[in-house]
Amino acid sequence: MKINLLITGGLGYIGSFTAKNIFARNKKKTYIVDNLSRGNSFAKKYSNSKILNVSEKKTQDFIKNKKINTILHLAALTCVRESIYNKDKYYKSFKSQKKFIKLLKKTDVRYFIFSSSLSVFEGSKIKKNLSPYSNYKLRMEKYLKKISSKNFKVIVIRYPNIIGSDPSGKLGEKNNFISRIVPFFYKNILAKKKNLLFYDFKKRKFPQRSYMHVDDISKINIDVINNFKRFNKNFYIFNVSNRKQYSNFQVLKELSKLMNVNPNYEIKQISKKESITQIYKSGDDISKYIDYKPKYLNLKKILKTNLKWFKKIY
Ligand SMILES: NC(=O)c1ccc[n+]([C@@H]2O[C@H](COP(=O)([O-])OP(=O)(O)OC[C@H]3O[C@@H](n4cnc5c(N)ncnc54)[C@H](O)[C@@H]3O)[C@@H](O)[C@H]2O)c1
C-alpha cells in the first residue's frame, strides 16, 4: 500500500518540521489539517494545508477526497501547566479528538500515529496524580488501543520534551499562547528579568526532563510512517527519549552561558501534578523497527540551534 499521509496539527511546531523534512526527502507536499488555534503559517510552503478543526465533518470529507490512508495526529492543546488552570479547554480538545477518530471509521485510514507524552510518567511508573493534559493523553491511548484492529493499526509515540530550531534560523517554535521552557527563559534573559524555576522543596530537586531536538523527533515520525509494514501488531506504544535527562536549572544555565549572562532566577514549589523525574520503563524498543540515530544528543548543542531563530522572532 502506498502511503498517503495527513498530518493533523501540521502547522504547529513538530508538524512543521515533519512536513519540512518530508518535503526535503521526496519533494512531496504533505496534506495538513490545522485550525491555527496555536500554530503558524510557516509550514504552509511545505504542505497542502487546510484550515479546519479536526472534528469538523469537512475534515472527514477532505480525508475521503484525498484518499488519505495514514494519519500522524499531532493536533492538540499541549501544555501541562495550562491544562491544570484550564481544565475545560483541555477536556474540549480531548472530546474533539475522539470525535475526529470516530469519524475515521467512514474513511480509508488504516494507519494512525498518535503523539503522546512522557509526562504521563513519574519515575518508572505512570504518575498517580496526573495533570489533565497527561490524563487525556492516557485516555486517548486507551481508547486507541480499544479500537485498534488489523484494518486500523495504531502506533503511540510518547515524546519527551521537544526543543530546538533549524540552525539556519528558517524554522522553529513560535507559540503566543503558552510559554515553553526555552523560549520563556530566552525572553526573560533578553528582558533582564528573573526566571522562575520550579522546584520540589521537599525532595530538594529541580524537575528532570529528557530533551530531544525537534528535527530528531520529526525524523522518527517519518521513519515510523515509512516503515509501517514492519509493525505487525495492531497496537504499539513507544517511549522515545534522549537517554540523558537535564533539570530546568541546567537548561537555564546552558542557555545563559550561550547568551553570555549569569543565570538569574527565583524558585517556586512545583505543582504535584507535574512530575519531578521522567524516568520510565523502556516499553517496546523503537530501534528494532526504524533506524533511529538522533543527530542532537547534547543539551548545549540543541540549545545553540535556537539562537538564529530566536533572534529573528523575539
Ligand atoms: N512539544 C513537545 O514538547 C511535546 C512533548 C510531548 C508531546 N507532544 C505532543 O505533540 C503534538 C504536537 O505538539 P507541538 O509541540 O507541535 O504543539 P503545537 O501547539 O505547536 O502544535 C499543535 C497544532 O495543533 C493545532 N490544533 C490544536 N487543536 C486543533 C484542532 N482541534 N483541530 C485542528 N488543529 C488543531 C494547533 O493550531 C497547532 O498548530 C501534541 O499532541 C503534543 O501534545 C509535544
Instruction: Report Rg.
Output: 19 Å
Could you say which small molecules are bound to this protein?
nicotinamide-adenine-dinucleotide
CATH-derived topology:
Rossmann fold
How would you sum up the global shape? globular
Coarse structural class: alpha/beta
Fraction of residues in β-strands: 15-25%
Biggest sheet descriptor? 7 strands, parallel
Oligomer: single chain
The secondary-structure element order is EHEEHEHHEEEHEEHEEHEEHEHH
Describe the protein.
By secondary structure, the chain is an alpha/beta fold. The protein has one domain: Rossmann fold, CATH 3.40.50. 35% of the residues lie in helices and 20% in strands. It has ten helices and 14 strands. A seven-stranded parallel sheet has the order 3-2-1-4-5-8-12, sandwiched between helices. A three-stranded mixed sheet has the order 9-11-13. Strands 6-7 form a two-stranded antiparallel sheet. 45% of the residues are buried. The structure holds nicotinamide-adenine-dinucleotide. The site of nicotinamide-adenine-dinucleotide has 28 residues, from helix 1, strand 2, helix 4, strand 5 and strand 9.
